[in-house]
Amino acid sequence: MNPYRGKILVIRGGAIGDFILTLPAIAALRRQFPQAYLEVLGYPHIIQLAIAGGLVNQARSIDARPLAGFFARHGDLAEDLRDYFSEFDLIVSYLYDPDGIFRANVARCSTAQFIAGPHRPQEDQKRHATKTYLEPLERLAIFEADSVPKLPLASNHPAPARPQLCLHPGSGSEQKNWPEARWAELVQQLLDSTTFDLLLVGGEAEGERLQRLAAALPPARTRVAQSLPLPDLARLLKACTGFIGHDSGISHLAAALGLPGIVLWGNTATEIWRPLGDHVVVLHCHGGLGQLDAKDVFAQVRTVWKLGG
């Protein structure tokens, strides 16, 4: 008998990439307990992806203020959250809780089996993050689950008239970004030597960079999508032929959607954090991203998308 025919809660904070890298664990729970009600608790602008992809039954926003009591030893627990946690039969938490205070407070109001997963992988283990996030589920007899994040999302955008390549010229850290001048060179090569239309995407942090890059490009072959809700961005990406970006959550999102891609990688540990996918290429440069030449990236474009010339 399925012991969790009732309710399962997965708690996941962190950034976009952290959530995407936890998708294999969420998918593994769904496969193991197909009759269970599965809910995710996390940041609202990110967990919408789980609903859009049909991975969970419901998503609830982490509201930091009432949750604060759960991180204080013997804290004052908000009544609505006491009732909320009491509804679940299994809780899998990836929150940072080194002293087990959150876990102990949840136990004050819930009889659920509680499994504490790691907030982040240990860098010295040299193991991909998805496998680290799957490991706690071995307690539920979940072994050898697929460790590649997948977001089964249908695009509601019509197929573009010409193949469209998505470019994300930013990230959460300027140190992870390829120089803007190199992006401008690559964009020009793409326009001159391929039939791709270009979709430039980003958030507030990349706004000025997007506008500067787009200003020099023909409007008929260029589109800018800035600060879209993540499900809308995901559907837009799904209609694209491929993706080029940095070490960022959007690169992980593109890979989870199954897009072929090129990721321009800096100094982050590749074996732990790289986006996973059969057609995702990670490009390094010995001297750092600043030394990566546009012509070398374009050569990889020809290889990935099997372009002649």
Any overview of this molecule?
With 309 residues, the protein is α/β, with parallel strands linked by helices. The chain has helices spanning 16-32, 44-52, 64-67, 79-86, 101-107, 129-134, 180-193, 207-215, 230-238, 249-256, 270-273, 294-304, and strands at residues 7-12, 37-42, 58-61, 90-93, 113-116, 164-167, 197-202, 222-226, 242-246, 261-264, 280-283. The strands form two sheets. The chain has a six-stranded parallel β-sheet with strand order 8-7-6-9-10-11, with helices on both faces. A five-stranded parallel β-sheet has the order 3-2-1-4-5, with helices on one face. Helix 7 crosses helix 12. The protein is elongated. The mean pLDDT is 93.
Overall residue-averaged pLDDT value:
93
Total helical elements: 12
Helix fraction, binned, reads 25-40%
Order of helices and strands: EHEHEHHEHEHEHEHEHEHEHEH
Shape: elongated
Beta-strand share of residues: 15-25%
The major sheet is characterized as: 6 strands, parallel
Structural class: alpha/beta
Strand order, main sheet: write it out: 8-7-6-9-10-11
Provide a quick synopsis of the model.
This protein is α/β, with parallel strands linked by helices.
Protein traits:
elongated, 309 residues, 5-stranded parallel beta sheet, 6-stranded parallel beta sheet, 12 helices, 11 strands, alpha/beta
How are the SSEs ordered, and which strands pair?
Layout: E1 7-12, H1 16-32, E2 37-42, H2 44-52, E3 58-61, H3 64-67, H4 79-86, E4 90-93, H5 101-107, E5 113-116, H6 129-134, E6 164-167, H7 180-193, E7 197-202, H8 207-215, E8 222-226, H9 230-238, E9 242-246, H10 249-256, E10 261-264, H11 270-273, E11 280-283, H12 294-304
Parallel strand pairs: 1-2, 1-4, 2-3, 4-5, 6-7, 6-9, 7-8, 9-10, 10-11
